[in-house]
Design goal:
- The protein is of the alpha/beta class.
- The chain has one domain: TIM Barrel, CATH 3.20.20.70.
- The chain has helices at about 15-20, 50-60, 75-85, 100-110, 155-170, 185-190, 200-205, 210-225; strands at about 5, 35-40, 65-70, 90-95, 115-120, 135-140, 175-180, 195-200.
- Helix 3 links the parallel strand 3 (about 65-70) and strand 4 (about 90-95).
- Helix 3 (about 75-85) runs parallel beside helix 4 (about 100-110) and helix 6 packs parallel to helix 8.
- It is globular, with a radius of gyration of 16 Å.
- It starts with a strand and ends in a 6-residue tail after the last helix.
- The structure holds D-xylitol-5-phosphate and zinc ion.
- D-xylitol-5-phosphate binds near residues 145, 178 and 179.
- It holds the Pfam family Ribul_P_3_epim.
- Keywords: Carbohydrate metabolism, Isomerase, Metal-binding.
- Catalyzes the reversible epimerization of D-ribulose 5-phosphate to D-xylulose 5-phosphate.
Length: about 230
């Protein structure tokens, strides 16, 4: 099953509770699987967004579980606080973590899914042996920092290689893509083996964000075909 995670980076930050409700399901119609929350510290990336207090408030404002993507330095120090704030999944960057195994174990021990992200220039191969410690691997399909950037097609081989490693080890972990995912790029990602799709501008830039979520999910599932269970 393909999962669609709208990114609130493209939502109205003064009305986050309402923006979350715009992608919730209703009357048996599935909505967003997770709400993607981009945390930026103006050091790891040249942009600044929000921290644990906003995550805590958002947690109370919606039933959609929160997928926190930490684009920050020193995730070893800060990531556990996002689990405490209510995140159901916490993603730290491989490039920023001092001790990724210890950090992933700490996130899991605190009760959230542990996930690691790779910037476009970071290869997956050095992390093969770490995969069993993770619940999800995020392959960035833009340079992190901003919404609305063009999808990097050159990341498709990395998505494919990551899917092969996950399958080779027989792991249940998810493979997420983030950046430039839209109606015109999601099929390529699904064919390459991604099963969790972050979409910011493609969802919140649409007239009906909930309909955009459903359309993206349908496209991803059709492109993945019956062979992949996700
Ligand atoms: C970029 C963020 C993304 C961003 C995606 O650094 O990590 O989650 O919100 O936005 P779109 O889908 O517009 O590329
Ligand atoms: Zn993100």
């Amino acid at each position: 099953m393909a999962q669609i995670n709208p990114s609130i980076l493209s939502a109205d930050f003064a009305r986050l509770a309402e923006e979350a409700r715009r992608v919730e399901g209703s009357d048996g119609v599935a909505g967003a699987d997770w709400l993607h929350v981009d945390v930026m510290d103006n050091h790891f990336v040249p942009n600044l967004t929000l921290g644990p207090p906003v995550v805590e408030s958002l947690r109370r404002a919606t039933d959609i579980p929160l997928d926190c993507h930490l684009m920050i330095e020193e995730p070893d120090r800060w990531a556990p606080g996002y689990v405490e704030a209510g995140a159901g999944s916490v993603t730290f960057h491989a490039e920023a973590a001092a001790a990724p195994v210890r950090l992933a174990r700490e996130i899991r021990a605190k009760g959230a899914r542990a996930s690691m992200a790779l910037k476009p220039a970071t290869p997956i191969e050095p992390y093969e042996d770490l995969l069993p410690e993770l619940d999800m691997l995020l392959v960035m399909t833009v340079e992190p920092g901003f919404g609305g950037q063009a999808f990097l097609d050159i990341m498709l081989p990395k998505i494919r290689r990551t899917r092969q490693l996950i399958d080779k080890h027989g792991l249940e972990m998810w493979l997420q893509v983030d950046g430039g995912v839209s109606a015109s790029t999601i099929e390529r990602c699904a064919e390459a083996g991604a099963d969790v799709f972050v979409a910011g501008s493609a969802v919140y830039g649409a007239e009906d964000p909930a309909a955009a979520v459903r359309a993206l999910r349908r496209q991803a599932e059709e492109a993945a075909g019956p062979g992949r269970e996700g």
